UniProtKB/TrEMBL annotation:
PANTHER family: BIFUNCTIONAL UDP-N-ACETYLGLUCOSAMINE 2-EPIMERASE_N-ACETYLMANNOSAMINE KINASE, ROK (REPRESSOR, ORF, KINASE) FAMILY
Xref: SUPFAM superfamilies: Actin-like ATPase domain, Winged helix' DNA-binding domain
UniProt source species: Kitasatospora cinereorecta
InterPro entries the UniProt entry points to: ArsR-like_HTH, ATPase_NBD, HTH_MarR-typ, ROK, WH-like_DNA-bd_sf, WH_DNA-bd_sf
Residue ranges annotated for the HTH marR-type domain, each copy included: 32-72
Name under which the protein is recorded: ROK family transcriptional regulator
Similarity comment text for this entry: Belongs to the ROK (NagC/XylR) family.
Domain of life according to the entry: Bacteria
Amino acid sequence: MTENPRTRRSPLAGTPLAGTPSLLRAINDRAALELLLAHGPLSRTRIGSLTGLSKPTASQLLARLEAAGLVVPVGTTAGGPGPNAQLYQVNPAAGYVAGVDVTSTHVRVAVADITGVTLAEHREPTADWPPAETVARTARAVAQAVRLAGLPADALRETVIGIGGALDPSTGELRYAEHLPGWHSPRLIAELEEAIGTPVSLENDVNLAAVAEQAVGAAAGCEDFVLLWAEEGIGAAIVIAGRLHRGFTGGAGEVGYMPVPGAPVVDDLRKEGSGGFQELAGEPAVLALAEAHGLTAGTAEQAVALAVESPAGEAFLAALADRLAVGLAVIVSVVDPELLVLSGGTPTAGGERLRALVQDALHRISIPRPEVRCSAVPGSPVLHGALQRALATARDALFTTR
């Protein structure tokens, strides 16, 4: 049970006591900052009406936040009756964060200010990285993005890294990431923090794609959904009651290993081609399916895009949709989500045509029939999610004014 932050209990009588003035000020400050982030520049009067604070209290609040460097004046209102009112916004320079997307071929970094505006991005190929230099070179890529943003080297407050694996919370070991050499040190987080110079969080890349969809994409306003990521590999993110479900060892959503009808079942998951959903709908399987339908391409994404543009591609898309639906039916029978989001290069290339086929195929074979949507996050969902997570952590620290 969570205690109301506005009250505290007497250690002797157990009766509620009024919140301290400093706590109430902190609550009001945080509410005003969140309103400024959500609505843009606001006047003292508007902040007062949205929060229920009196004009004198709203004035004191804004003076306090301005003195702390958290808000800045940005002009005045115009066109209304009476004198123009001063407008305030969250100070973009109050803090900066970085998001990192790690794949088997590159590291991509974005830097944003505390309001969420992306200032710079930098992409670094990793083909020639010796595994022993992975941490140092990742730190250099982050530093380059900071330079491109025109910021001092020590400007960042938080860094979140999205990676195709999951940290086991009991051991700190990065699991499901054999394809990423150089990311398996037992002191990985500590080494990254030392090299980058900020607190670092490591998060599964598909989980971060779900964070982005919930914040600014297809799952906005939805608290129970599953995101299926299909590209080189297959993965999923599960959101229940608005929160990511990671599982006991951090492996929730690693559905590439999930046994499904039509895919081989083997006894040793450490081997290549180890069966499961990956063998049915991962990139090698999609390319083989495309070739069987007369479509030749270098990647699954290219094969699907080619099929969408070709009248002869309908049979291939329908067969791929059936395969995706088989795995999704297993997931929804357990989770029963409100919504399914298709993300990653393969479904994105298929667009609305593939989405409709997947939804029809799923609804034929599954009792739960959630709506299926395409990703609505522009650019890299993983990078967007990493920035969202880094911003949430940085704001929690910065906006706590007690």
